[in-house]
Design brief:
alpha+beta
Length: about 650
């Protein structure tokens, strides 16, 4: 049994190291140092080669506490970070001093506190795996240590195979039930959104292209960054057209950078149906977005969004359709929007005056761009001219993330007349200038393309590398129409496996239904459960009136499963009671109940043998001995011995 206890303590230490890494309080170097310390402590304690006085360990604990204070006051200045390091050091210290059973319990307690530190510092899916393993291991540790204590009091040794496969299966079942109860409590306890230890803000993703001023060429470096920005779920299935997620509209260009359109914007407060942004024309598409914590206030939306609801109370809506938060988010933002995926936005009014061609009038390349516009803009209508310019850029220019420098006075002249290669920003900027040179109002739009489709969860995985720029041109009679002059970029050289898609789906579900779980989610679950329960009752009442079987429809499997669980629980409970009456265990608990009624109550922490000695009755010793034989030796009372126990119980009941 000693070997099993040390094995479990070693496993617990490994879980503690894992929790320490998840807490964010340690880098690779400190984690490695802790791993070496844990291993050395376990090895020396198991071999019994380190026997130092208690005073030494107490002094060491005081030193560790002083280090904690220094860390908190002068280094990290964060309580949870310093506390996680304190728990890791105390665990390392205790692993060198494993002498008694309670020392192993202390190890489990320290790992539990490390687990708490990880819980408030991480949103990783691996934390659930860590929690499940800790629950199983801690139950195992407590059962073994409690059994060892009882055997020591009874001066007996464990029977062979006592902690075999049956014991492991029992621990697994108990652990599973514990996790189920934990999940039930998690979803049922009201989410207040406040607490002593608030989870620290997640690390924000650095984005480019959504500030007041955006340099031409700034999107190039992020086109090779695979960091996930958001996941956009389409409950109705993958749309037939390419989805563009708008982030910002840029109006003014000075030859080097773009600046945001400073048109009117208005603040919206959430109502019963969320935020109503527009009239909602055309075909409706529902999109559920889980946005990673970004360093921008933008809520990325598809074009023509007319309704939005989410975990925010107010938003800014610009006249161009861009939606922004009122302040920077420091955690994930979950929202749902309803939109028309058409490339035409007819809600925004027409711009006043002539097309903004101020840069073309003041720049050296202005005349060359006007001449190129006359050559490229073929057609009688504005729509035909815009389509012709779009096709000209797609056909005569090359897509690359590393364009060569030309002899032009600026990046746009380099692109249009010399290198003739670039990426989305070059193409979109050039088309805006060519449209304005043709007298057509146009502006630059930055955002993201749809990204990678996950068929398993019906959602797009949008990454930094999906950042994109395109053009919106105002066409008389239609409105603002989207154009994308950028040729198709080279396809990725890899194809994600089904396993990776499953893992990403699990990560999405974990973030959406566990990390983002809120009071509004609880309210929705309660209302849904109430409606379904009312439907069940109505169906049952209807079946009594019509004398027909109730029709539960889609809920029939759920009802059948619940009925099966109830019947199975009743059957096993009845069988367990009946079986317990036939064995020494059942008779022992009957004896405890009888003695309790007569004033002999077994005290908490008192072993069966200690209780029998306190009662001082030979008959109590005999029933206790039969009970311990069955519990620790797997030997059940049968025949004459079982009849003798029954007789003793009858005598005890009579007094």
């Amino acid at each position: 049994m000693t070997g099993q206890i040390f094995a479990l303590t070693s496993f617990m230490s490994l879980l503690g190291l894992w929790a320490f890494g998840l807490s964010g309080a340690a880098g690779p170097l400190l984690t490695g140092v802790m791993a070496v310390a844990y291993g050395a402590g376990l090895f020396l304690s198991f071999r019994g080669r380190l026997q130092l006085p208690s005073a030494v360990w107490n002094a060491a604990a005081i030193v560790v506490f002083l280090l904690f204070l220094a860390d908190f006051l002068a280094i990290s200045r964060e309580f949870m970070t310093s506390a996680s390091r304190l728990m890791a050091l105390l665990l390392a210290l205790k692993l060198f001093d494993l002498k008694k059973g309670r020392d192993h319990l202390i190890i489990s307690a320290l790992v539990f506190f490390q687990l708490l530190g990880a819980a408030v510092s991480t949103v990783s899916l691996s934390f659930f795996v860590l929690l499940a393993l800790f629950v199983m291991a801690s139950i195992w540790v407590m059962i073994i240590l409690s059994t060892a204590r009882d055997l020591e009091a009874a001066r007996r040794s464990a029977a062979p195979g006592l902690f075999g496969t049956r014991f492991l299966a029992a621990v697994a079942v108990i652990s599973a039930l514990s996790l189920v109860i934990t999940l039930i409590l998690f979803f049922s306890i009201p989410r207040l959104g406040v607490g002593i230890f608030q989870r620290k803000a997640l690390n924000t993703v650095k984005t480019t292209g959504f500030t007041d001023t955006v340099d031409l060429g700034s999107l190039g470096p992020v086109k090779e960054d695979s960091t996930i920005v958001m996941r956009a779920e389409f409950p109705g299935g993958r749309p037939s057209q390419t989805v563009y997620f708008k982030g910002a509209t840029l109006q003014d260009y000075d030859g080097r950078s773009w600046s945001r359109d400073r048109g009117p914007s208005f603040i919206k407060r959430a109502g019963p149906e969320g935020f109503i942004i527009g009239p909602g024309q055309g075909r409706t598409t529902e999109i559920a977005v889980l946005l990673e914590p970004l360093d921008t206030e933008v809520l990325f939306t598809a074009p023509n969004v007319y309704r939005l609801e989410g975990s925010v109370h107010s938003i800014w809506v610009e006249h161009t359709g861009v939606v922004r938060l009122t302040n920077l988010p420091f955690s994930r933002v979950e929202y749902r929007l309803w939109t028309d995926l058409s490339r035409v936005n007819g809600d925004e009014p027409a711009p006043k005056g002539a097309a903004d061609a101020g840069y073309l009038d003041s720049s050296p390349e202005g005349q060359r761009i006007r001449a190129l516009a006359i050559e490229a803009a073929k057609g009688e209508t504005d729509l035909a001219k815009a389509a012709s310019i779009e096709e000209h850029l797609r056909t005569n220019y090359k897509y690359t993330l590393s364009p060569e420098s030309g002899k032009g006075s600026g990046p746009m002249e380099d692109f249009l007349f010399y290198s003739k290669e670039g990426y989305c920003e070059h193409f979109a900027t050039s088309m805006v200038m060519l449209l304005r040179a043709s007298g057509i109002h146009a502006r630059l739009v930055t955002g993201f393309l749809e990204g990678e489709w996950n068929e398993l969860g019906s959602y797009f995985i949008v990454r930094q590398q999906d950042a994109h720029s395109w053009v919106e041109a105002y066409i008389e009679g239609a409105g603002w129409v989207r154009f994308d002059p950028t040729p198709s970029a080279p396809a990725p050289q890899y194809s994600p496996s089904v396993i990776l898609m499953y893992l990403d789906l699990l990560r999405l579900k974990w973030n959406r239904h566990i990390i983002q779980f809120s009071l509004s989610d609880q309210r929705k679950i309660a209302l849904t459960a109430e409606r379904k329960a009312a439907g069940f009752l109505d169906e049952i009442k209807k079946s009594f009136r019509t004398k027909q079987l109730p029709q539960f429809g889609k809920a029939a499997p759920v009802v059948a499963a619940l009925v099966s669980v109830i019947l199975a629980a009743w059957f096993f409970k009845r069988r367990g009671r009946k079986g317990a009456r036939r064995t020494g265990k059942g008779f022992y608990f009957d004896m405890l109940k009888t003695l309790s009624a007569k004033g002999f109550v077994r005290r908490p922490g008192e072993t069966p043998l200690e209780f029998a000695e306190r009662v001082g009755d030979r008959r109590v010793f005999e029933v206790t001995e039969a009970f311990q034989k069955e519990r620790y030796g797997q030997v059940k009372a049968r025949g004459a011995e079982l009849e003798k126990i029954r007789k003793i119980l009858r005598e005890l009941r009579k007094g």
